[in-house]
Write a structure and sequence with these properties.
The protein is an alpha/beta fold. It has a single domain, classed as TIM Barrel. Helix content is 43%, strand content 17%. The protein has an 8-stranded parallel beta sheet with strand order 1-2-3-4-5-6-7-8. Strand 5, helix 5 and strand 6 form a beta-alpha-beta unit. Helix 6 runs parallel beside helix 7 and helix 8 packs across helix 9. The longest helix is centred in the middle third of the chain and has 21 residues. The chain is globular, with a radius of gyration of 17 Å. Bound molecules: zinc ion (ZN). Zinc ion binds next to loops. The site of zinc ion has 6 residues, from loops.
Length: 260
Amino acid sequence: MIFETHAHYDDEKFDQDRVELLSNLLKENNIGKVVNIGASFRGCKDSLELATQYEDVYAALGIHPEVLEDMTDENLDWIKANASNPKVVAIGEIGLDYYWVKEEEQRAKQRMWFNKQLDLAKELNLPVVIHSRDAAEDTFNTIVGYNTQENKGIVHCYSYSKELALEYVKMGWYIGVGGVVTFKNGRKLVETVEAIPLESIVLETDCPYMAPEPYRGQRNSSLYLKYIAEKIAQIKNISVSEVEQVTYENALRIYSKVKG
Ligand SMILES: [Zn+2]
């Protein structure tokens, strides 16, 4: 079975078939567990709702670095109040995005909220899901300061160098690998997958975005995780079932509130 560690089924692109996907279709197609990730505040509420509704769906709650307008103490209080729900398994996605956000004042706000949400995760003893784009150094330095034996996370949609990935792995963090690994211009991620142990990789779609080949550019869903597993198997010269099994166990280790 496959563990989907990062999806956004609250997105309107799933309005037509969300119920069908989450009630039967994913399970019939070997997708055992799904973590739906909050990005906006509304996305957090919707994620929790989906997790409450569907047995094998879990939620991560957090404010994404691009959604600056949702970074309010009220919203943080709501996240804190709801994080003790047994279906809430992580704080995320949180982090830094210097690709979309260029203005220094806004970047400073991202950094402040990244730290606030990391502190909250530590207080709640939950893992974190990191979004980081064009902010390798600031993200890594923040994580190094945050990392302890108990406080780990996933660097989702990993886009940096294999050397940096190895630094995260050394700290016991996980690298989220998705559709980019199948892209023609995904060479950097292929090199990362080559360099790091399978025990540090989790599978993710980031759906509805980031569909793998041969569906690049179309709406993504967890049904396409098999193409990512196949690509990793090919890179590491192992069987697809080994990729699925080991990454499933990895996901259970980091999302430890998920019932196996
Ligand atoms: Zn995402």
